[in-house]
Amino acid sequence: MKDIVIIDYGIGNLRSVYKGLEHTGASVSITGDPEKILAADGVILPGVGAFADAMKNIEDLKGVLAECADSGKPMLGICLGEQILMDRSEEGRPTSGLGLIHGNVLRFPPSRLKIPHIGWNSIQITQEHPLLVDIPDGSYVYFVHSYYVDTTQENILAACEYGVTFAAAVVNGPGNVMGTQFHPEKSGDIGLKILHNFVKMC
Amino acid sequence: MLTKRIIPCLDVTLNEAGGTVVKGIEFTDLKKAGDPVELAKRYNEQGADELVFLDITASHEGRGTMVNVIERTADEVFIPLTVGGGINSIEDIRQVLRAGADKVSINTAAVKDPDLIRRSSQVFGSQCIVTAIDCKRNLDVANNPDKTVLDLEDSTPAWYEVVIYGGRKPTGIDAVQWAKKVEELGSGEILLTSMDRDGTHDGFDIPITRKLSEELGIPVIASGGVGNPQHIYEGFIKGKADAALAASIFHFGEYTVQDVKAYLRERSIPVRL
Q1: Closest approach of chain B CAs to the CA of A18, in angstroms?
Q2: B69-102: pLDDT as tens digits
Q3: What are the 10-residue block averages of pLDDT along chain A, 202 residues in total?
Q4: Interface probe with B: pick from A6, A8, A9, A15, most Cβ of B within 10 Å
Q5: B80: enclosing H helix or E strand
Q6: What's the average model confidence in pLDDT over B131-160?
Q7: How far away is chain B from the Cα of A20, in angstroms, using its nearest Cα?
Q8: Structure pTM?
Q9: Would you name the residues of B annotated as active-site residues?
Q10: What is the predicted ipTM?
Q11: Where does B5-266 sit in CATH, by number?
Q12: Strands A156-162 and B169-174, bridge-based pairing
């Protein structure tokens, strides 16, 4: 059984991620313990809330997470957890992220569109990757965010359109560090399939 | 493309035995008639985009059983859940989020203490905080020069007054001004219910829905009055709402969520099918 840890560094709804992963048959725990994180088969970075708060809360684990990434351990950041994988965010006072995937986090430009971007939007799959195996192009997934990831084509697994085209799913060069702007744990069967794909990689 | 959301609402209350049931439910083929968790699963299978639980027990012991309902639902249903009813404090919010809710809807408590919206959106993020605005048409325009006057369907001028305690108490607050204020305070969405339409099956209250949808930079969920799929269509086209909430048309089994979405898709409204 795959041992998956969810990094506990905030106050969001972790229950759904937990249950979603459990649904895939993984053994799941919520932890902030470096040893457990290093020993796990896979790491989930969840997250809701503000970028700067999340970085502050995760400060002590930065080294451990970098070590996980370098060792090739599969890691998946969800929503804000995706954003903190990047180099930098302009949310609030510009703040550095973990820098595990190159790119920046920007605010949606002013337009007639409602912010936050809330609801089910379709994704265009731009790159083959184990995370998105058997996910049909154009699938609907659930988003809720005001900032988005801007990165280069080789780091994008799937794109989404909301005024701008942004990275709905990202990956690092070696392919083991991934992030989704949407919430797989809130995206019905498609989301559960993505979590399943992740666990299979671990 | 971002789709319009269809959100079934479950009014959860306690039965005589102290168990939780959904008000107004008449499915007879459910394993446990009226069981909120069974019903949530049913709506999820039908393609609901989100679910709203309104805790109308509003009692201390009711809260405990409600938390249990949220936990059991969140364990099996992987779509967003919003919980409202009797949310008065940061601690209340923490409790339902921990149980597995993604958002809370705050109503009377926000009117009594608007700063609760600011504090809670700072702690949990704006995306968690839905402000529920219940309003009622007020035709006394002459004595209310500071209010936002809208034209009703027959061109009668009216302003919309915020009401609290389930619509029993008028507040003198202008709904349009109030909505703008809660947006500034950090609310991530508005759940708008017109008490003139709630329970009527006559369709959404279009003038106020449209006004808020146009004026606000955050999404507006229209609620109150849905009797058929056409009403939902009009809520999106005429009311410009981002999402539609309905209860009885789904509970009575008259229409499934799928039926409504098929109707909307035929008329070129983007929906997740």
Answers
A1: 9
A2: 999 999 999 999 999 988 999 999 999 998 999 9
A3: 89 85 95 96 88 89 97 96 96 93 95 93 98 98 95 98 97 98 96 98 98
A4: A15
A5: none
A6: 97
A7: 7
A8: 0.94
A9: 11, 134
A10: 0.92
A11: 3.20.20.70
A12: unpaired
Whether chain A has a CB inside 8 Å of the CB on B75: the answer is: yes
- Establish if A48 touches chain B: CB-CB under 8 angstroms: yes
Q: Name the minimum distance, in Å, from the CA of B107 to any CA of chain A.
A: 20
CB B245 within 8 A of CB B54: no
Q: Which amino acid is at B192?
A: L
Spell out the domain ranges in chain B: 5-266
ω into A116 cis (within 30 of 0): yes
Measured between alpha carbons, how far is residue A125 from residues A102, A105, A134, A153, A167 in Å? Answer: 19, 20, 11, 12, 10
Residue of A nearest to B48 (CA): A188
| Residue in B with minimal Cα distance to A10 | B124
Residues 200-229 of B with CB under 8 A from A: 216-219
Choice between B133 and B125, residue whose per-residue pLDDT is larger = B133
pLDDT tens digit sequence for A149-169: 999 999 999 999 999 999 999
Element (H, E) at B260: helix B257-266
